[in-house]
Specification:
globular
Length: about 70
């Protein structure tokens, strides 16, 4: 049976005047490559999330098999 561990990452919203649901592709690709190099696989992107106690942004959910 496969077991996974999960982690989230956040890309915060851009500069003032930008729409909250916009995603900076360069920043997204940088984060995907960083997480992929650590063995994480992207599961889902949730845009424009209100995060408790943090700056709002786009939430990325990753998983990888446990040992």
């Amino acid at each position: 049976m496969n077991r996974y561990e999960y982690v989230t990452s956040v890309i915060t919203h851009g500069l003032l005047g930008r729409k909250g649901d916009e995603i900076d592709r360069v920043e997204l690709e940088r984060e995907l490559n960083r997480m992929g190099s650590e063995g994480w696989e992207l599961v889902r992107v949730m845009t424009d999330m209100a995060l408790h106690g943090e700056k709002d942004g786009h939430l990325l959910l990753f998983k990888r098999p446990t040992s």
